[in-house]
Amino acid sequence: MSITQVLFFFLSALALGSAVMVVISRNPVHSVLWLIITFFAISGHYFMLNAQFIAIVNIIVYAGAIMVLFLFVIMLMNLNAETEPQKNKWMKLAGVVSGGCLLLVMVAALKEAEVKGQTTEMVTGNIGLIKNLGQALFTQYVVPFEISSVLFLSAMVGTVLIGKKDAKEQN
Amino acid sequence: MNPVLLVIDWAFLLEKAILISVVIGLSLFIAMYETYAERKVAAFMQDRRGPNRAGPFGILQPLADGLKLFFKEEIVPNTANKFLFVLGPSLAMLTAMMTSAVIPWGSSVEVFGRQVNLQIADINIGVLFIFGVVSMGVYGIMIGGWASNNKFSLLAALRGASQVISYELPMGLSLISMLIITGSLKMSVIVGGQVDSIYYVLLNPLGFFIFLVCAFAECNRTPFDLPEAENELNFGYHQEYSSMKLGFYLFAEYINMFISSVVMATLFFGGYDIPFVSDAGLVESIGQNWTALIQCLVLFLKTGFFIFLFMWVRWTIPRFRYDQLMNLGWKVMIPLALVNMVLVSLLVLTGIIG
If 0-12 CB within 10 Å is exposed, 13-18 middle and 19+ buried, where does residue B230 land? Predict the structure, then answer.
């Protein structure tokens, strides 16, 4: 096995294992920490595809900002393993059945998909480098890019509006 | 399967391993003597003598402090989350050490007929790498504060996290204004654009100021040291820590200070460029290795100035109140950074700078 393959299997195992740990951890803080490890493993995959920009942005935005806010809320609310509400047996069973159904549908859908014949470009591809990515975003995909930025802006304005105290209340 | 991938360049590995050890050793050594310098600067500003017992001029004081921390009893509180309690300081130390990987410490030296670049990794996303590692730094504080299972530590950790997140935004915006001028995220290109040319601080002074203030906040230094505000929070997020685990937290702060000084010197003050001297001419007259050595020294001089600035500010300006800190971050720094970004991009677009 080449080094690339060893790294690929290691990162895949890490990503899947820590993703499972997110779900089965009792303590919410542990779940968040496992999720951060999952993001790192996924960033490692991006690095292997030579998509350096996406890899580092994944770390900055998800692991560095969003997960900090998650952790923030969980720590402030002081959620512990003891205070976590325990679902009853039937709820758990229903969860397993519906999750299994979803898995079945996804396997059935992806079984015939055209991914088997395609090989990924390992290390050699350069679309993920910041220069090529910027060029693609601002020429070929400029309209969806701008529309999504407007979406983000409206979300930000909405958040400020909700977070703001009522003008009458303040006076 | 590609057999080429299995061939390992041992000389390359050795070169990088030596470089990494030297950089890590140097950062630890400098962080050690920063503690000494801080006490001396504080003493000077308050008209005292400072440490002067251990060795001549108290020069062995950091060693004595380190030994003291090692010999202290290691206490893990009963109610603490044991694993995370140890993970906290380790993470703080790890993230503090990682940034130095992308800093160019000098141009290059020739050893045994081999060109050795004085930069551990010249990656395409150099500036973003620093930013990513900085955004990871907050986990050390948060995990440590939470795992202590103490209300004061938790409050201090939450303060620290919200402060770091708030000041990351203007820092990122001021970096964007820098990148508009440089046109590259590579650290080597950013320094190369300043060698024998004008320093970026002159092109983007407001950006530098914003970056400086945010660096103070990111390092939890006064006037932004609210996570360790001892008169409100007993001792801050490391209240339950003792022995070397406490030492790691304190040490990480000093390493952060050193690294952010290096980053500021590199991004805005020409990095290893020797001011008023043509570097290319120097290579011809005294040789490549000596030039690299002088460049390294110049970088450390610039860094030393910023470290002094950190200490100067610490003993001059009192601590902010928490709401003042948040107001400054969100209502002053972010709009200022946005205005600066638009201004710089207009100037670059019209061809006045850049």
Answer: exposed
